[in-house]
Amino acid sequence: MLKNIIQFKLKILAKIIVAKYKPRIIGITGSVGKTSTKEAVYTVLRDKFNTRSSIKNYNNEIGLPLTIIGTDSAGKSIIGWFKVFFKALKLILSYDNNYPRVIILEMGIDHPGDMEYLLGIAKPEIGILTFVGSVHAEFFGSKEKLRQEKSLLIKSVDKNGYSIINYDNEGSRKSISESKAKVISYGLDEKANLRAQEIRYFFEDMNDSALQGVNFKIIYNGAATPVLLPNVIGTNVIYAALASAAVGRAMDMNMVEISQALKKLVSPKGRMNIIKGIKNTIIIDDTYNAEPQSMIAAISILKKIPTKNKRIAVLGDMLELGKYSEAEHCEIGKNIFKLGIDRLVLVGEISVNIERGAIEAGMQKDQIFHFDKSIEAGVFLKNKITSGDLILVKGSQGMRMENVVKEIMLEPKRAPELLVRQDKEWENK
């Protein structure tokens, strides 16, 4: 009951603040890539515009208004919530000359009706649809119904705004025809309006200091602009950079400005970050979350990076896939074998289907190890990894795969600085 009251008050206050200050709203939704895209868009815009982006992972009915107000959640503190409401009222009753002119909002959905609720608080001038996958499909009945819910963001943008849509993903691509706004599609496909080509990853050695990152060319309106993203890897960051470049163009920035800004891009915690491991190993920390497409993308990158020894995939269950769960996990296993991964360490009940898929494809059973909890997998790896091993760690948020990384990272005292979910609210989960 108290939560409903707080949620209602936050909605009203946030709507009034948006109506008063009229910031340019950029809304981002998708099954994966929202946070990486948010960070990339913020990186491109922050030096040119007074910009605010979603705080932490605040992308729901409570988090989104808190971003608009510009404050953290008060949790279970009644006094804390009074302070939040006071700050909101102060913004409404007086005028803050420093209030941001651009606000970037993640719009996450779990159930039918969620997007409509969020759009009722803040309607975007620019809408970004990153990717439509299977996550949360169990709550919608089908992938198509999930797509329709996410596409409400695109439909909400009026004809003077911009819809920025991932062309490479079939689910998001369907929304192009549903947009009233000007569309900038992005991706690797040649049919995308704004695309990346000549992608090159640089790994000169297995020392993390030698990681050069990735560079590529952005092709837009027939012109090519070179982009360097230092110290990041993965296809996900390329898509995020492309989406942010499209936003920059929609806001009248030139491609040189955009390219220069992207050099400052830093991957959020738990998203394809390189971390030094014990025994001279390298960890690819992709523990923030997982769904089928991002899982396959991460495994593919694992294959591309040179290593002196074994490639090890440590994978947890992918949750909230509903009726697609068994088949999607099995497909991951088949890809593990096809890509030549040397060892497979699994966590959780559902991941038995990854094992089944890998064995059916040809992987030997003695190359696969299974654990109930992430901490058990971490302890096991401590004793099994050897110098030069390259270790990918990934799984859904609820699997707490960051516990694996914490067990095998060279500097565990830096966990609060480097890993996801290290604050108090996650301690007992």
UniProtKB/TrEMBL annotation:
Residues 270-396 form the Mur ligase C-terminal domain. Keywords: ATP-binding, Ligase, Nucleotide-binding. The keyword tRNA-binding does not apply. Gene3D superfamilies: Mur ligase, C-terminal domain, Mur-like, catalytic domain. Residues 28-68, 93-247 form the Mur ligase central domain. It comes from the Bacteria. InterPro entries: Mur-like_cat_sf (IPR036565), Mur_ligase_C (IPR004101), Mur_ligase_C_dom_sf (IPR036615), Mur_ligase_cen (IPR013221), MurCDEF_CellWall_CoF430Synth (IPR051046). GO terms for molecular function: acid-amino acid ligase activity; ATP binding. This is UDP-N-acetylmuramoyl-tripeptide-D-alanyl-D-alanine ligase. It comes from Candidatus Falkowbacteria bacterium GW2011_GWE1_38_31.
